[in-house]
Specification:
The protein is mainly β. Helices cover 11% and strands 43% of the residues. It folds into three domains: 23-115, Sandwich (Immunoglobulin-like), CATH 2.60.40; 119-198, Carboxypeptidase-like, regulatory domain (Immunoglobulin-like, Sandwich); 216-338, Beta Barrel (OB fold (Dihydrolipoamide Acetyltransferase, E2P)).
Length: 340
């Protein structure tokens, strides 16, 4: 055969071989004398809004396998969760479950996927209202929504951090003993800084001291009570001690310049005879030289502590008129307190 004929035949054979090789590259065929037994799918589930390439592998009866991703027919059971292209590219559309299927010849492979909802981090600082002072150890808690009950507490700098929260709107609470509870609405669509302020609870006003009570048993030790006319069995007055001295009946006379709210307790006798002061008497506290007074004080040793002149005091006792002197008195004194 002429050489040019031989070269033409060789070239034609090469072209035919190249065509066969190319067809085998794009359309794989099952190994000879082997049956297709199954199709397996592999791939990593993508996050919402992202894609991942899945692979379909054909398995044959002679223990061989072949990548048939491009030749398989792909399908998703839920397009709301994930879609899949003809080339096996899976795109997550939303959270939930779906089956990804690949059919090659007579066999279908299935892979179940679960697309998780996206999660975000919520962080911030809790400080006192009206200042930058951090609130340490405050509890920060989700009150409603899919993450109800998720909680943390603030550190020494008032900082808190809650990760892995699902998106959406919910109520966030900040609480610490000694502060007013605070609740805020939060809408989470990405990582978010959200600061709180807590208002300290004002401490309760101190309770006033209990009103002094009169000791009614003292009346039985008053010397010559017939000279006294009781106006009020128990009255309290405040004022400043201007003078004090003892009497032979054992009483200590303590005179007060009363504070303005109590000037109405004075009468003309106080004004003219005591320079506008109020007489008060602590009974049975000094040496007694009057026999009748000694008998009246029998069984009683007075214990009213009388401070120095110029001391501001509160005096409680029987408010009465001394008919002999014509002035008003607190007599006997039941309680005497030093006050600011």
């Amino acid at each position: 055969m002429p050489l040019r004929h031989l070269l033409g035949a060789a070239t034609a054979a090469g072209i035919i071989a190249l065509f066969v090789w190319a067809c085998g590259k794009t359309s794989p065929t099952a190994p000879s004398n082997a049956a297709l037994t199954s199709v397996a799918i592999s791939g990593t589930t993508p996050a919402v809004g992202t894609s991942a390439q899945f692979t379909a592998t054909a398995n044959f009866s002679n223990a061989t396998n072949q990548n048939v991703t491009a030749q398989a027919a792909w399908q998703s059971s839920s397009s709301a969760v994930a879609t899949v292209s003809s080339a096996g590219l899976v795109t997550a559309a939303g959270s939930g479950d779906a089956d990804i299927r690949a059919t090659y010849q007579s066999q279908t492979g299935t892979m179940h996927i679960t697309v998780a909802a996206p999660t975000f981090t919520l962080l911030g600082v809790v400080s006192q209202t009206g200042s930058s002072t951090p609130v340490q150890g405050a509890a920060v808690r989700v009150l409603d929504g899919p993450d109800t009950g998720r909680a943390t507490s603030t550190d020494d700098n008032g900082f808190y951090n809650i990760g892995g929260l699902r998106g959406g709107s919910f109520t966030l609470e900040a609480l610490k003993t000694g502060y007013v509870l605070t609740e805020k609405s939060v809408t989470l669509t990405s990582d978010l800084r959200f600061d709180f302020t807590l208002t300290p609870i004002a401490p309760p006003a101190p309770s006033p001291p209990p009103a002094p009570q009169c000791n009614s048993s003292l009346w039985s030790h008053v010397y010559d009570p017939s000279r006294l006319s009781v106006v009020d069995s128990c009255r309290t007055v405040t004022g400043t001690i201007t003078d004090q001295h003892t009497n032979d009946d054992g009483d200590i006379d303590v005179r007060l310049a009363v504070d303005p709210p109590y000037t109405s307790l004075l009468n003309g006798g106080n004004i003219s005879n005591l320079s506008g002061h109020l007489q008060t008497e602590a009974i049975c506290q000094a040496p007694i030289t009057v026999p009748d007074a000694a008998r009246a004080c029998s069984g009683l040793k007075g214990s009213v502590a009388v401070p120095a002149n110029g001391t501001h005091v509160q005096v409680t006792g029987v408010y009465l008129l001394d008919k002999i002197h014509g002035w008003m008195e607190i007599h006997p004194i039941s309680v005497l307190r030093v006050i600011p």
